[in-house]
Write a structure and sequence with these properties.
The structure is a single chain. By secondary structure, the protein is an alpha+beta fold. It contains twelve helices and 33 strands. Strands 2, 4, 5, 7, 8, 9, 10, 11, 22, 23 and 24 form an eleven-stranded mixed beta sheet that branches. A seven-stranded antiparallel beta sheet has the order 25-26-30-29-28-31-33, covered by helices on one side. Helix 3 crosses helix 12 and helix 5 crosses helix 6. It is globular. It starts with a helix and ends with a strand. The relative contact order is 0.11.
């Protein structure tokens, strides 16, 4: 008995010592994880530096010969503001308490910092871009970059999960940089001659709503219910997930007449022995089954777990599994996706799994060529120690209703269709890091919602300026390029409508600029590789708007469409060296519209105008240009900048 008590006392003492050591370690002042060796800090403005420490601690921050002391608040956070500094370096950034240095960063430069955000075309790396000959010569110690790791949070994160890796541009590193952002910075380095730093915060396939803070997004229509669900998930993930399962089930009952009957398929005690077994290869499915995979397909498997595995189980990992899915563990809903390429990773609430036999059931809906019957090896239960329990099967399947053009709205925390979660995880933790400008390349995932996009774009620009304490932060938007099937006749275009919304949001903002890219797209690839031109067009905008150099911030923009005799004349502004047409006598891509009925009309270039001969008919109300997902265009100016797509009423 005494030995047991002694052991218990030792364990208590060890636990207490560990707790005290852990507290002391957590209380030591630390810098926020956006600050790292080789970082670039913004010149010519007060420099915000922040971090964490024990409450009531005096923290002294020193950069070169500048020093300031800050006091932590009751929440353990501290923030110091150093006086503005001109471009220069390298310096050491030192954080101290008393006379002891607790954190020191080296090779810090003062220069200009660019924040680059958006989806996959901003994420697109230099090593995949056209013109790989730039890599061997990419040696610029004063141009640095870092990439914010993907992180989705239901509430604003106080810090990044780990310290970022700031890297200088070399032939060995540059391939990992955002291509658009790098080529912009490289071009600006040629004229501005100051150190520059790139912060890339992007995530492929995501929507603009993901990148706006909850208070800002709440000012836009139709997001209240989703934001309330996000807040509920932050308080109680299990309850919010269960509520979303109920919502999704109601949606499927309205779409699928068999949904009520098929509720039993999710249950752990359902007998699925008459279901077919999933073969090792998709091609081994019976031909009759392959022809019916466009609708609902149920999948089921079992997995035996030890008590230790149950205790450490954290995540159900399924990989891509169809466009839609609802996934159940032992009859309880754990998550559902709404994008065919997105990997499914669902949290497993405590008490859901049990030692011994467990049943996983999945209702999938998606195209025939999906991942439901391939690569079962990626399906696992992730454990807290980094290990995994494979869900090797056997898996069984049952084909349900054949459904077409169905849609079930995603959960508002479901990346890539989430609300506010990427702002919380990838913008909030790095604000208010000093910036020179922001660049944004996104919109592909919002085509179809052009009417809302204009307001969302304006909201995002204002929101980021607030977060980074820069009310007049220059903000440059890459307009969607061309992608998709060319049009042989005028038609509605979600891509064209979104381009118009981007242009309108930028035109209404005195500190914004639009990079037109309609000429460098790839109608076969949503990720065109010609990023050098886009980066250089952003640099052109930056020189005028952010650096105050003389010049036009953009290429030709239609100012008005007016009737003139039997013709309609479109007048352009921001034209350098007159309008030019490539590859033909006239300008193509113009349409005259009578209400919703439009027809192509050729244009005749005259100086800074385009005349549409014979287009002035009484019923014509508007003129459009390049109004298609993937238009063919040939109208440029003397600076080789393309005319911007537009839709204008006829005056």
């Amino acid at each position: 008995m005494r030995s047991i008590r002694a052991l218990a006392g030792c364990a208590l003492s060890a636990s207490l010592l560990w707790s005290m050591a852990a507290h002391a370690q957590s209380a030591a002042p630390t810098l926020a994880n956006i600050f790292g060796d080789h970082a670039v800090l913004q010149r010519d403005r007060p420099i915000a530096i922040w971090g964490n420490a024990a409450p009531g601690t005096a923290v002294t921050v020193k950069l070169n010969d500048r020093s300031v002391t800050a006091q932590t608040g009751s929440d353990g956070k501290w923030r110091a503001t150093l006086p503005s500094m001109p471009a220069g370096g390298p310096y050491t950034l030192d954080v101290r308490t008393g006379t002891a240095s607790v954190q020191r960063l080296s090779d810090i430069m003062i220069g200009d910092v660019f924040l680059c955000g958006g989806q996959s075309n901003m994420e697109f790396q230099v090593k995949h871009a056209t013109g790989l000959e730039v890599i061997p010569s990419a040696n610029d110690a004063a141009l640095r970059f870092t990439t914010i790791p993907d992180s989705s949070k239901t509430a604003p994160a106080g810090d990044l999960a780990k310290r970022v890796d700031w890297r200088s541009v070399t032939p060995e590193t540059v391939g990992d940089a955002s291509a658009v952002c790098y080529f912009m910075a490289r071009s600006l380095r040629g004229t501005e001659k100051v150190p520059m730093g790139i912060i890339a915060s992007e995530w492929g396939g995501t929507r603009i709503e993901s990148w706006i803070s909850a208070p800002a997004l709440a000012t836009q229509p139709s997001f209240t219910e989703g934001l309330n669900a996000i807040a509920m998930f932050d308080r109680d993930p299990a309850a919010a997930t269960a509520a979303d399962g109920v919502r999704r089930e109601k949606a499927w009952e309205a779409l699928d007449p068999a949904a009520r009957t098929e509720r039993a398929f999710r249950n752990a005690d359902y007998d699925d022995r008459k279901w077919a077994t999933v073969p090792a290869q998709y091609e081994q499915l019976p031909a009759a089954d392959r022809d019916r995979l466009g609708g609902v397909v149920w999948l089921r498997t079992t997995v035996d777990l030890t008590p230790a595995q149950v205790a450490s189980a954290q995540t159900l990992r399924l990989g891509p599994i169809g466009r839609y899915d609802e996934t159940y563990v032992n009859g309880r809903f754990v998550g559902g996706g709404s994008v065919d390429w997105a990997w499914r990773n669902y949290g497993i609430p405590a008490g859901m799994l049990r030692a011994g036999r467990n049943v996983i059931a999945i209702r999938t809906v998606g195209p025939k060529q999906d991942g439901r019957f391939t690569d079962m090896s990626i399906r696992t239960i992730g454990l807290s120690d980094g290990g995994a329990v494979p869900l090797a099967g056997p898996w069984r399947y049952r084909i349900g209703s054949v459904l077409k053009d169905v849609a079930v709205g995603p959960a508002p925390w479901d990346v890539p269709n989430s609300l506010t979660t990427l702002y919380n995880g990838m913008i909030a933790p790095i604000a208010p890091y000093g910036l020179k400008l922001a660049a944004w390349y996104q919109g592909e995932s919002n085509t179809g919602q052009a009417a809302a996009y204009r307001g969302l774009m304006s909201t995002l620009m204002a929101d980021w300026r607030r977060a980074f304490a820069a009310p007049e932060l220059p903000f440059f938007v890459v307009q969607l390029t061309s992608y998709g099937k060319p049009a042989t006749a005028p038609r509605d275009s979600g891509w064209a409508a979104l381009r118009q919304s981007q242009a309108q949001a930028v035109a209404a903002d005195a500190h914004a600029g639009l990079a037109v890219t309609i000429d460098v797209g790839d109608r076969f690839d949503i990720h065109p590789a010609q990023k050098t031109v886009i980066g250089e067009r952003l640099a052109r905008l930056a020189r005028v708007v952010a650096y105050g150099q003389p010049g036009l911030r953009s290429g030709p923009e239609a100012a008005e469409a007016a009737r003139q005799g039997s013709d309609i004349v479109v007048r352009f502004r921001n034209v350098t060296g007159g309008l030019q047409r490539y590859g033909g006598a006239g300008a193509i891509g113009f349409e005259r519209c009578a209400g919703t009925m439009c027809s192509f009309v050729d244009g005749r270039v005259e100086g800074d105008t385009v005349v549409l001969p014979g287009a002035n008919r009484p019923e014509v109300t508007a003129v459009r240009y390049a109004w298609a997902d993937a238009p063919f265009v040939n109208l440029f100016d003397g600076a080789d900048l393309p005319a911007a797509p537009f839709e204008l009423p006829v005056r």
